[in-house]
Amino acid sequence: MKMKKTLLTLALGTAGLLAVPAVLAQNAPTDSAGWFVNANVGRTAINQGPYDGHDTGYALNGGYRWSLAPNFALGAELGYNDLGNIHTKNIFNSQPVVNPTKSQLHGWTVGANGRFDLSSNWYLSGRAGLYSWTGHGLSNDSNPIRQGINNNSWYAGAGVGYNISDNLSVGLNYDYYDARKHNVNLSTDMISASAEYRF
Q1: Could you tell me if residue 171 is left (phi over 0), alpha (psi between -120 and 50 degrees) or otherwise beta?
Q2: How large a percentage of the chain has pLDDT more than 90?
Q3: pTM above 0.70?
Q4: How far apart are CA 91 and CA 60, in angstroms?
Q5: Handedness of CA 62, 63, 67, 69 (dihedral sign)
Q6: Less CB within 10 Å around the terminal CB: N or C of the chain?
């Protein structure tokens, strides 16, 4: 009888020890190092000179992060965005979805991208870098003139997100894109929803 109790105790103890790695894996932060791609879609806002309005914008990014700590990864990203003249509400009426008379801003981004895992599911993100943009807009003077311009400037943003799995996450983000030249200011904010896939 004593031998049966000892064997039962050993079996339960072994089962408990085998369960520990699984429990720790569930509580451990997700490793966000490696290659990634993400996409953002959201509402853009411009309140500069002759403009005061909202449109729909999108951004596509890809890059690589290196793990610098158990819950922190930092890397580089390259992306493209379009932040101007897309009016999704006009899909349901006779107005143009792409309005050539509105402000237009699109361009390429290259910069740093970081993630700080708060837990196995929640994370904070940040990004900043160079914004090489092209745009069309009205100058901010007494006789506004519509100009096509391009320049190099900067962008920055932050977000919060949730890891659905080790490879897939979703998030909410705020980004600012600086874009001004020749008295035309197309600088734009974007609040967006995002999805990211890690390889």
Answers
A1: beta
A2: 51
A3: yes
A4: 22
A5: negative
A6: N
